Amino acid sequence: MTPLYLMDPETPGAAWAPFAGATPLGELRAGGWRLHERWSRALGAKLAGHLAPHADGPRPTGAAPIVPAATISGPAWVVDATFAPKLPMRAVGSAKRLLVGGRAVAWRLDPGEAWTGPHNSGDGIVIEGLALRGAFDLVTALEQFLFTDTLAALEEAASVTLPAHVHVLGNAAAIQLRAGAEVEPAVVLDVRKGAIILEAGVVVRSGTRLEGPLWLREGTIVQGGVLRSVSAGPHCRLHGEISTTVFTGYANKSHDGFLGHSVVGEWANLGAGTITSNLKNTYGPVRLDIGADRVETGRSNLGSLIGDHAKTAIGTLLPTGAVVGTGASVFGPPRAPKHVAPFAWGGDTDERLDVERFLDMAERILPRRDVTVDSAMRDHLAALHARLVG
């Protein structure tokens, strides 16, 4: 398959908080798939690396590398990581560029052709999709793509027989229960507004209501509550009322508390009773306040953007448009500030979690999901801390 490289902005800026500097943007989930998966499916290409200097550093074992632009040559595709293509995408033939609104979002390199940066040369073909202005638009991508993404998934994998004790509202053909998934008695699956995909290893406990469109990746466990329009996993633990929210993977939201119109990074943990506000009293557009930067989202429904490895204490109240930085531990007053800095120890505080304590915590937490903290992972986490704290 043709190699695929996702190109981040050199400096993503405040709109991409809390993920700027923490992870290549192509690893974030837009709808049912991560951004690099969307592009791979669109082009029939295989991820070879990220052009993401803001997140440069050691990578975990098996992760796609961050590569220098000067090392890329064809045959290859280089694509804009801040654009989410609509799937299925039209055939691109021999086009050298893929265009949206007159702007190129992808470039094809011929064999031996070196990548010299974005350009406006060569034949172009128009495609459809969503230009992502920041991390908040991953919620917009969920709203626009999850319905069709789950329908596509229905056609691509086999479904085992649904247990007789499951209550189905709508057409049961819109439910895909993959081999190894388990649904206990007294679970309601509502597919009147979209399909439901439950991958291998997913467990849905009694007393849960799932409303499509919804996609739970492998190993995710739902322990009760109501989930609607959720894309989550792999290996998440979910409970309570969750609406229109995307989880990159390996996150815990295991207790009561409303979570809506939010983006949750990997290894985040929301303490019992953590509640997000996703609508202002004025019903007006939500603005992000990130240090000295103000970002107008244009969205009236927006909850919280929660970075990788972030944690909230029990009873935490997150205001509309809250941004919780990577590695932050939020505790103290129940109402958190609108912006919590990366690796903050508390809420509105100058104290930071030091790297050794961060690594000690990771060595306790990651193995709980059977992820080994080997030397590559330690180097990755230490570099992550250094980039965001210094």
Keywords:
single chain, six-stranded mixed beta sheet, 14% helix
Structural features, described:
The protein is 14% helix and 31% strand. It has four helices and 33 strands. The protein has helices at residues 35-43, 137-154, 355-365, 375-389, and strands at residues 2-7, 29-30, 33-34, 45-51, 76-80, 83-85, 97-100, 103-109, 124-126, 129-131, 167-169, 175-177, 182-183, 188-190, 196-198, 203-204, 208-211, 214-216, 221-232, 237-247, 252-253, 258-260, 263-264, 269-270, 275-276, 287-290, 293-296, 304-306, 311-312, 317-318, 322-324, 329-330, 339-340. The chain has a 16-stranded parallel β-sheet that branches. A six-stranded mixed β-sheet has the order 4-1-5-8-7-9, with helices on one face. The chain has a three-stranded parallel β-sheet with strand order 24-29-32, with no helix packed on it. Helix 3 (355-365) crosses helix 4 (375-389).
Summarize the entry for a quick read.
By secondary structure, the chain is α/β, with parallel strands linked by helices. The protein contains 4 helices and 33 strands. Helix 3 (355-365) packs across helix 4 (375-389).
SSE layout:
Blueprint: E1 2-7, E2 29-30, E3 33-34, H1 35-43, E4 45-51, E5 76-80, E6 83-85, E7 97-100, E8 103-109, E9 124-126, E10 129-131, H2 137-154, E11 167-169, E12 175-177, E13 182-183, E14 188-190, E15 196-198, E16 203-204, E17 208-211, E18 214-216, E19 221-232, E20 237-247, E21 252-253, E22 258-260, E23 263-264, E24 269-270, E25 275-276, E26 287-290, E27 293-296, E28 304-306, E29 311-312, E30 317-318, E31 322-324, E32 329-330, E33 339-340, H3 355-365, H4 375-389
Parallel strand pairs: 1-4, 1-5, 7-9, 11-14, 12-15, 13-16, 14-17, 15-18, 16-19, 17-19, 18-19, 19-20, 20-21, 20-22, 20-23, 23-28, 24-29, 25-30, 28-31, 29-32, 31-33
Antiparallel strand pairs: 2-3, 5-8, 6-10, 7-8, 26-27
Helix pairs in contact: 3-4
